[in-house]
Every structure is written in structure tokens, then in C-alpha cells.
Design goal:
The complex is a heterodimer of chains A (78) and B (176). Chain A has 78 residues and is of the alpha+beta class. Chain A contains 2 helices and 4 strands; from the N terminus they run E-H-E-H-E-E. Chain A has a 4-stranded mixed sheet with strand order 1-2-4-3, with helices on one face. Chain B is 39% helix and 12% strand. Classes of the chains: A alpha+beta (78), B alpha/beta (176). At the A-B interface, helix 1, helix 2 and strand 3 of A face strand 1, helix 1 and helix 5 of B.
């Protein structure tokens, strides 16, 4: 689908707010600056929340798409 | 698929670094639904890399007594208070529809069904994300609570001046 070099994948499927964000923040701390982390979530609120989180933390939301109730986010650690 | 432009973060300071924002929550009420709100916001703010201080006072301090503690206090009044209202994050009453504990029991059932994290789990996540919980010394004295009655990892007990200093220095303060 993409040729992005994903360092870590976080499956937050089925988790409710604020777990997708909390799990992602925890995962983000385990990778180096510039690394890409991919998150899959099913919480529809996570679309807005990941935008807010990336704005607030400075980690860049590189890609975002949805597919049949699954939301995918690719974030680059600042 | 949407490729997003790498716009600079809204909170970016003039030197290019993202400014660390400060949030203070005064955890006052100790009721289940409000404790839930406190823990959700504290853990999320921690995840958003904010500097978060939760000042824990009055009924709120009951939330931070270890779950396994049943009776706390030194004199009969303090002991009776803890007997009539079981302390601990897992034993919070609802402000409405408590029905002798039936309400909270149903809330936990629903939370499990819909994969919503319990306040206890969110509290642990918040601590792991660096959120500071500051117990109120005056409340500890009045309820006869000792440091060892409270959960591990809390900050040094402090008073109103510390709370006010935190609040006036913060970008946002919530009284829950």
C-alpha cells in the first residue's frame, strides 16, 4: 500500500477513548526521533484526537486514512 | 488515503520548539463519575506531553487510599467515616443512582462491555506518563490518613499555597 518504513505498529482496535492516544504516546517513547509509528484504531473520535495530539506534542501526523470502520494513522516522532 | 501537509504545530513557540503546557486538576469530589473524568483527562494530558499536577483534596483523597485498606484513621470518628464510605479508587460511589453500590457495579459492567478503562487503570497509566499527584496535608490530618495509607508514587503532601502556586502557573485548571 505504501512504502513507508514503519518502525512500530500499535493496534488500538476496540479500545475506547483515551486508550488509543495513551497507548500511542507510550509506544512513541520507545522509538527514536524521525521513526514512523502506525496506529490502527476503531474509535471514531480518534480521528479528531490524533490531530489534536499531534498538534499538541509536535509529533507529525504523516498519513491518515480509514477503511470500513478502521482508522489508520502514521505518525513521525519529533 | 490522505497525505497531510506538515504544517507547524499551533502551539509552536518562536524558537521552533513546542511549548510545554501545564494543566492542574483539583481532585475534590471523590465520586466515581468525577474520578473517571479526572483520570481520563490526567492520563490523556500526560500522553499529550503536558506537565500535569493533580492536587488531591477532601473527598478526592479517599480515591488515593490503597484499595485493600478498609478502615483508616486514628480515632473513632475517622474510623467510622472510612467504615461508612469505603476508600480506594475501585470503591467510588456515584453522585446519582448509587443505589448502595448497584450503580457503580453496573457502570463497571458497561465499561467492560464497551472496552472503557477503569479509573484504577487510567490512574496507573497517568502515573506511568509522569502525572504528579499531590496529596493535601490538611485533609490527611483531618481524616487521619498516613503516607502509607495512600497509593505509592504520590508527591510530598502540600497545602493550599502549593495548590494556588500550581494553579496560577498553569495554562488551565480544573476543579473536579
Amino acid at each position: 500500500m505504501t512504502d513507508l518504513d514503519i518502525k512500530l505498529k500499535v493496534d488500538a482496535s476496540g479500545l475506547s477513548c483515551p486508550l488509543p492516544i495513551v497507548r500511542t504516546a507510550q509506544a512513541m517513547k520507545t522509538v527514536s526521533s524521525g521513526d514512523l509509528v502506525e496506529v490502527i484504531a476503531t474509535d471514531p473520535g480518534s480521528v479528531k484526537d490524533f490531530e489534536a495530539w499531534s498538534k499538541s506534542t509536535g509529533n507529525v501526523l504523516v498519513e491518515q486514512d480509514s477503511n470500513g470502520g478502521k482508522f489508520r494513522f502514521v505518525l513521525r516522532r519529533k | 488515503m490522505t497525505a497531510l501537509a506538515e504544517a507547524p504545530a499551533a502551539q509552536e513557540a518562536s524558537d521552533g520548539a513546542v511549548k510545554t503546557r501545564k494543566l492542574v486538576i483539583v481532585d475534590y469530589s471523590g465520586e466515581l463519575e468525577k474520578t473517571w473524568a479526572t483520570m481520563i483527562l490526567a492520563s490523556t494530558a500526560g500522553a499529550m506531553e503536558m506537565e500535569v499536577s493533580v492536587f488531591v483534596t477532601f473527598w478526592g483523597l479517599q480515591t488515593f487510599v490503597k484499595d485493600r485498606k478498609r478502615i483508616t484513621g486514628e480515632n473513632w470518628m475517622q474510623k467510622m467515616m472510612s467504615f461508612m464510605q469505603r476508600p480506594g479508587v475501585s470503591h467510588r460511589p456515584l453522585s446519582k443512582m448509587n443505589f448502595m453500590g448497584m450503580g457503580p457495579w453496573m457502570m463497571f459492567k458497561l465499561a467492560k462491555k464497551y472496552n472503557v478503562s477503569k479509573p484504577k487503570d487510567l490512574l496507573e497509566m497517568a502515573q506511568a506518563l509522569g502525572v504528579t499527584f499531590v496529596p493535601c496535608q490538611m485533609t490527611m490530618d483531618m481524616f487521619g490518613l498516613k503516607r502509607e495509607d495512600l497509593i505509592d508514587g504520590m508527591a510530598e503532601p502540600a497545602g493550599a499555597a502549593t495548590a494556588l502556586q500550581l494553579m496560577t502557573d498553569a495554562d488551565s485548571t480544573l476543579f473536579i
